[in-house]
Amino acid sequence: MIRRPTILDVAARAGVSKSTVSLVLQGSKQVRPETREAVEKAMAEIGYVYNRAAANLRSASVGLVGLVINDLRNPFFTEFATSLQMALAAEGYATVIANSDEDAELQAKLVGSMIEHGVSALVISPAYGAASDTFDQLARTGLPVLQVLRKMDERTSIFPFASFDYASGSAKATRHLLEQGAASVAFVGGLPGRAITRERKSGWREVLKAEGIEEIALHGKSSRAFGMQAADQLMADYPDVDAALCFNDLVALGLMAGFARAERPVGSGFHVVGFDDIEEAAQSWPQLSSVACDISGFARDTAARLLHWMVEGQRPEPEFRSPVRLISRASSLGPTE
Amino acid sequence: MIRRPTILDVAARAGVSKSTVSLVLQGSKQVRPETREAVEKAMAEIGYVYNRAAANLRSASVGLVGLVINDLRNPFFTEFATSLQMALAAEGYATVIANSDEDAELQAKLVGSMIEHGVSALVISPAYGAASDTFDQLARTGLPVLQVLRKMDERTSIFPFASFDYASGSAKATRHLLEQGAASVAFVGGLPGRAITRERKSGWREVLKAEGIEEIALHGKSSRAFGMQAADQLMADYPDVDAALCFNDLVALGLMAGFARAERPVGSGFHVVGFDDIEEAAQSWPQLSSVACDISGFARDTAARLLHWMVEGQRPEPEFRSPVRLISRASSLGPTE
DNA sequence: CATAACTTTTGGATCGTTCCAATTCCAGCA
DNA sequence: TGCTGGAATTGGAACGATCCAAAAGTTATG
Description:
The structure is a homodimer of 337-residue chains. By secondary structure, chain A is of the alpha/beta class. Chain A contains twelve helices and twelve strands. In chain A, the strands form two sheets. Chain A has a six-stranded parallel β-sheet, with helices on both faces. A six-stranded mixed β-sheet of chain A has the order 7-6-8-9-10-12, with helices on both faces. The radius of gyration of chain A is 25 Å and the shape is elongated. The N and C termini of chain A lie far apart (76 Å). The model of chain A has no long low-confidence stretch (mean pLDDT 89). Chains A and B meet through helix 4, helix 5, strand 2, helix 6 and helix 7 of A and helix 4, helix 5, strand 2, helix 6 and helix 10 of B. The structure holds a DNA duplex (30 and 30 nucleotides).
């Protein structure tokens, strides 16, 4: 196979210098239109493909953004990743998506690989685990890093953090459940001790405290499977509980499936509200009420924009919270028996 | 901000030449262990990070694989993408994942961008649309390209294609539904005219033909929403149909939700089998029978391996089909009223 | 018509690595 | 001691683009 043509070949063909070709490639407006056309014609004729590695070597800025997600299989994160990719594509950035699968070690490797590939910024929803040295190392590179949706650690905030205003969302949902007639609202799902669990519980806790209601929480993995299991546990151990605020929609869907299995379908007698409002929430039966985080809007308007600023050297606020809203559907609206 | 250290800085610090540092970086075994150690120590001390752009410029091979997916939001593809990424990571490749969102134009851009970034191979599940010129262009670059899960076009097979043996899977599922007592099995979902729809219908059609049963098919988008809509249509227009083979699990889940909404829960009186066996199938209520495509196994054992061969210059068979198996669960096992 | 002012084009240096041929090192042997 | 040959190390050229200062070309001005 013959070697790929370079700008020198293009230049020779078009009868100009390599510098001119370079200017055309960069879309400089100081080349004469006719010259530009000639160069473009030459490129097409010899099948020139731009060599970004060479360009990057000289010019540092790459237009490549790394995106490291802790669990890309979770639809919530998938939605975020794809939306962010599109938003960034519109601004001319290419995006590298990687899935750390909650593995801190793999995450460190992925981050390293991305830096090697010369990303000009990094968006990360971190995996849990002792990765604080990864972060220190990252900080030392001076790369713009935006932490999203999950905070590595309560105290540290080396990097700006963008997420949703979960606390007021959970307060809103809890109040709604009480208004619908619930006497006792359990919190289901979320691993204990994690920042995000604390956030999503905090509003619930506040409202319950204000109303003088006992706090009942079942913690566990944020999966459907745990939701089903929690349903059984609720029915067996807490017969008085007549509503649940779930850590996320997956748990809520599992919980509803568990109640359905026990022939006690959610809707009348038991109310459920989830978190995230994933697509499926509107398509389950009964339809699931959920605290909606407009994740694609967040990706587009918050994350992409913050990142853009950061790449341009601005320093955004250390913490940014997007508002959430409660979507009430059948799972929290039926009559209370 | 000071400039990033290079191998020259490392060399100076370690008291060796840049060439030696380069050898260490490449893991050459012809450097003395003590020298290697000294170099590694120096790298750690000054916080050296490898500049892959520079390396690529000189050495061509990059160890970067591009993965273009038509719909990354679909859990089936998400699973494939993440599994492939991990399998490739184990072989030392970095993976760039991109989502074309069924947009042929965007797909062309993404492919172009990946080539520019110097991927050494491309895995693509193509978007539909007039992108055949994209493919021609790709073919001209001589890059190893593996087409997966979806074929661009019935006739063309410029690139090797790997997918599942859908035809025998749908035959198996249809036979199973008949054995469970179904009198009439409808096919639900899948856009008409597409290769994959044809494949997933072909086994069903064969079995029905052999049994002399009328073919009833409702085509549409492969989404939950369509499944719900199809449930209404089935109940209204085809009261005799008592089983459905769905194009995929999303449609099947939507269909089941639709029946549930009409207070005719699937399980007794109506049987459903889906396709893909996504994680959710086992967690829905009733649990959904499905033609299981072991997508992560496929990614790991088929796609990753084929790709590896191709990168090494081998030419695999033009078409490869992985076997599928039927998982029967409650949605196709209850009594027929 | 000469000169200034501006636009367009150009050659050489440069980015940080790998490759290659050449050099240095060193143990073993006569 | 001097020589040999393999192992270890080295310096310079190369990769393909961008950047920059300077040259060439063009138009406007007095």
